[in-house]
Amino acid sequence: MISMSQPRNDFNDHRDPIATAHDTIVFQTPWFAIATRSLTGDDRPYYIMLVPDFVVVIARDCQGRWLLVEQERPAVGRRTWEWASGHVETARGETPEQAARRELVEETGHDIDDDHLIPLGSFHPDTGRLANRMWCYLALDAAPVDPHDPRLAGREELDLRRVMWDGSLAQLLQRPEFACGSHLGVVALAATQGRVTLT
């Protein structure tokens, strides 16, 4: 059982490592690249997507409401509810924790004290095709930031709407709008660590 003091972190887990020979980029965009990865002694290409690591932040405000965002997701052809999330800007030297704080402010308009950002751990969101990591956090007692806070400057470019959910997490997970599997997984991670309750 995972205790409350131990966030999941298998980043350095090297059990049964696979020897890879090299990656070859076959297609690239500003957001992701598709590559072939070869294994040592095997000429067959394995196609993978190279995308940046990202963070997901389960956030709750001082009134006990869960803070989500609703945004258009063209890949699934509809608007969905999600936790605050986004890429870690490693090119600028950003850490996952800094990215979590930044995304929380930009997407929900809320911030927290330093000791109220709890790391839940990290894992691979899709071991079949993605080579990145997902860093998970719980933010407690989030408070609204001043509307003129410079950290909100780029928010008008985001096509999202804030959602404040005052029901239980179990009820939230049943909503058809809350449809992102990796975001469901973060709730399970927090619950197994005793950080949140579903009811």
TrEMBL record:
Domain (Nudix hydrolase): residue spans on this chain: 49-186
The record lists the catalysed reaction(s) as: GDP-alpha-D-mannose + H2O = alpha-D-mannose 1-phosphate + GMP + 2 H(+)
Name what cofactor the protein needs.
Mg(2+)
Pfam families given for it?
NUDIX
For whether the record's keyword set contains Transmembrane, the answer is: no
Named from the GO MF annotations, one term is: hydrolase activity
A single GO BP annotation from the record? ribose phosphate metabolic process
Its keywords, alphabetically, are: Hydrolase
Record-stated family: Belongs to the Nudix hydrolase family. NudK subfamily.
**In its UniProt entry, what is this protein called?**
GDP-mannose pyrophosphatase
> Which organism is this entry from?
Isosphaera pallida (strain ATCC 43644 / DSM 9630 / IS1B)
